[in-house]
């Protein structure tokens, strides 16, 4: 299952990975847009994004990989954090900034 290995490689290679619909500049759904805005506001400059609309294999298999059926999906240091609702909760509590800062340190 090459696509599962590709997903695993993405989340292991980059400290901050957001699988989303669209791109940060052109999000294709409101949830992806809000998640990107929260991450940027929290200082996530080294954010790696994967547009699942351009990667149908990833879009089809990521829910099996993460056991989360919706998009966007945020992974930090290889660990699934959650979708838009979790990202916004973490942002509002101030936790997202701390997590992003820790993940961004070498």
UniProtKB/TrEMBL annotation:
- Which N-terminal residues, if any, form the signal peptide? none
Q: Can the keyword Iron be found in this entry's annotation? A: yes
Which SUPFAM superfamilies does the record associate with it? Thioredoxin-like
User: Which CDD domains would you find in this protein's record?
Assistant: GRX_PICOT_like (cd03028)
Q: Mention any Pfam family matching this sequence.
A: Glutaredoxin
Domain of life according to the entry: Bacteria
Outline the extent of the Glutaredoxin domain: 17-81
Q: Which UniProt keywords apply?
A: 2Fe-2S, Iron, Iron-sulfur, Metal-binding, Redox-active center
Gene3D superfamilies found in the cross-reference section:
Glutaredoxin
Q: Which PANTHER family match?
A: GLUTAREDOXIN FAMILY MEMBER, MONOTHIOL GLUTAREDOXIN-S14, CHLOROPLASTIC
Q: Which family does it belong to?
A: Belongs to the glutaredoxin family. Monothiol subfamily.
- The molecule here is called Glutaredoxin
User: What does the organism's lineage look like at the top?
Assistant: Bacteria, Pseudomonadati, Pseudomonadota, Gammaproteobacteria, Lysobacterales
**GN (gene name):** grxD
């Amino acid at each position: 299952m090459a696509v599962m290995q590709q997903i695993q490689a993405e989340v292991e290679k980059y400290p901050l990975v957001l699988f989303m619909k669209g791109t940060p500049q052109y999000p294709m759904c409101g949830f992806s847009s809000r998640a990107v805005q929260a991450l940027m506001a929290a200082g996530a400059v080294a954010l790696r994004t994967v547009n699942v609309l351009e990667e149908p294999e990833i879009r089809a298999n990521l829910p099996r990989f993460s056991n989360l059926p919706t998009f966007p999906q945020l992974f930090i240091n290889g660990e699934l954090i959650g979708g838009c609702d979790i990202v916004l909760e973490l942002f509002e509590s101030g936790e997202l900034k701390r997590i992003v800062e820790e993940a961004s340190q070498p």
